[in-house]
Design brief:
With 339 residues, the protein is of the alpha/beta class. It folds into 2 domains: 3-158 and 322-338, Glycogen Phosphorylase B (Rossmann fold); 171-317, Rossmann fold (3-Layer(aba) Sandwich), CATH 3.40.50. Helices cover 42% and strands 16% of the residues. The protein contains 14 helices and 12 strands. It has helices spanning 16-23, 34-42, 46-53, 59-73, 89-97, 121-125, 138-146, 182-193, 223-232, 251-254, 268-273, 286-298, 301-317, 322-338; strands spanning 3-7, 28-32, 78-82, 101-105, 132-135, 152-154, 171-177, 198-201, 215-218, 233-237, 262-265, 281-283. The protein has a 6-stranded parallel beta sheet with strand order 2-1-3-4-5-6, with helices on both faces. A 6-stranded parallel beta sheet has the order 9-8-7-10-11-12, sandwiched between helices. Helix 10 (251-254) links the parallel strand 10 (233-237) and strand 11 (262-265). Helix 1 crosses helix 14 (322-338). The radius of gyration is 21 Å and the shape is globular.
Length: 339
C-alpha cells in the first residue's frame, strides 16, 4: 500500500480530518499539521507576529525542513497538501525530483487571494510543481488547465454529519451560522431592513451589526449544538465569499444533510446539485433574496417539513458524503502513480 502524507491543519473546522479518515481505506496515511504549527507559533506572542510579518522568523524554514525529514524517514510516496501557505516551492521542487507525487486541494483559491489567510506567494508559485490539483470550483479547474497548463479535476465539497429533518422547533427567522465579515454583515442588514428577523451565530457579530429588535446575536457553535440550532430554524442562509462565485461552498451540503431549508446564492453549480424551490431556494439578487425569505417563512408547517425532507434526500441520495469524495480523490491519485 502506498504511503500518503496529508499536510494541512488539524483545527476542528478544517476538512483535512475527513480525508485523513477516509483515505485510510486506500493508502497508508499520515498527517503533518504544518498550518496548525505555524498558527500556534504566530499567535503565541506579539513578537512572533511581528517577526513573521517581517519575514524574520525561522518557523517556515523549520516546517519545510521537518516536512522533508518526514518524507525521508517514513518513505512517503505521495503528499496531499491542503492550500500550502507554509510549503515553499523550493521544497515542492526538491520532493518532486526525489520522485514523490504531489497533490493539492485548495478550499479557497489557488491564485486569487481575498484576504491574508486565503493564500500567499508560496501557494501561487507552487502551482506548477504539483502532479495534480483538486478544486471545488469548475471555473478554477478550467483556469488551472488552460492558464497554468497543469493537471486538475473537480472535487466538490461534501457533508460529514447528517440527521433527518426535525420540526420540534420551527423558529420563523433567518439563521446564519458563521463568523462575520463586512459583506456578510451587509447582507444581514438588507434582510433586517426588509423587516425579516435574523439570528446569527459566530464570534464578534455585535461589532459588525447595530442593535435591532429583529436581530439576535449568539456565540459560535460547533458539533451537536450546531446541528440542533441549524435544524431549529425555518431558514438557513448561505452566502458566498468572492472565491465561491458561480460555484458552491462548504455550507452547500452541510445544511441540506441536516434537513434544513437553505436560502443560497444562485450559481451554475448550485443548480447542478439542487433544484430551485424543491431542494433549496436560490436567489440572484437582494430583492429576490428578500422575497424568497418571506415566502419560506409564510409556508405552513407541512410544506416546510416536505421541503426539508426534499433537501435531505437529495443530498444524502446523491453521493455527497466526504467518504464519496475521498473515493474519487483516491482514484485520481492512483492513476497518477500509473501514469
Amino acid at each position: 500500500m502506498k504511503r500518503l502524507l496529508i499536510v494541512g491543519s488539524n483545527s476542528k473546522w478544517a476538512i483535512e480530518g475527513y480525508f485523513v479518515k477516509y483515505l485510510n481505506a486506500y493508502f497508508e496515511v499520515s498527517f503533518f499539521n504544518a498550518h496548525g504549527i505555524y498558527l500556534d507559533y504566530y499567535h503565541k506572542s506579539l513578537f512572533n507576529k511581528i517577526i513573521c510579518r517581517l519575514n524574520l522568523s525561522n518557523i517556515l524554514k523549520e516546517l519545510n525542513i521537518e516536512l522533508i525529514r518526514i518524507v525521508a524517514d517514513e518513505k512517503i510516496d505521495a503528499i496531499l497538501v491542503f492550500k500550502g501557505m507554509e510549503i515553499k516551492p523550493s521544497t515542492l521542487k526538491r520532493l518532486k525530483v526525489k520522485g514523490v507525487k504531489l497533490f493539492n486541494y485548495n478550499p479557497d483559491h489557488p491564485f486569487e487571494f481575498f484576504g491574508r489567510g486565503s493564500g500567499n506567494k508560496f501557494v501561487k508559485d507552487g502551482i506548477k510543481f504539483y502532479d495534480h490539483h483538486f478544486s471545488y470550483s469548475k471555473e478554477i479547474v478550467k483556469d488551472l488547465l488552460e492558464k497554468y497548463k497543469v493537471s486538475a479535476s473537480w472535487l466538490p465539497f461534501a457533508y460529514e454529519q447528517s440527521k433527518e429533518p426535525s420540526m420540534l422547533k420551527d423558529i420563523k427567522a433567518v439563521c446564519f451560522i458563521g463568523n462575520p465579515d463586512s459583506e456578510r454583515a451587509r447582507i444581514i442588514k438588507v434582510l433586517l431592513e426588509a423587516q425579516i428577523p435574523v439570528h446569527v451565530y459566530g464570534n464578534n457579530w455585535p461589532s459588525f451589526l447595530n442593535p435591532n429588535s429583529l436581530l439576535e446575536c449568539y456565540k459560535a457553535i460547533y458539533h451537536e449544538e450546531f446541528i440542533e440550532k441549524a435544524q431549529a430554524y425555518r431558514i438557513q442562509l448561505n452566502t458566498f465569499r468572492p472565491h465561491n462565485a458561480n460555484s458552491h461552498n462548504m455550507r452547500t451540503f452541510e445544511m441540506s444533510a441536516l434537513g434544513c431549508i437553505v436560502l443560497a446564492p444562485s450559481s451554475q453549480e448550485h443548480h447542478v446539485f439542487f433544484k430551485h424551490r424543491k431542494h433549496v431556494f436560490l436567489y440572484q439578487n437582494e430583492k429576490e433574496m428578500i422575497q424568497l425569505a418571506k415566502d419560506i417563512i409564510d409556508l405552513n408547517e407541512q410544506e416546510a417539513l416536505q421541503l426539508k425532507w426534499n433537501a435531505f434526500h437529495r443530498c444524502i441520495d446523491s453521493g455527497n458524503h466526504y467518504q464519496d469524495r475521498a473515493e474519487l480523490m483516491a482514484s485520481v491519485i492512483k492513476k497518477q502513480f500509473n501514469s
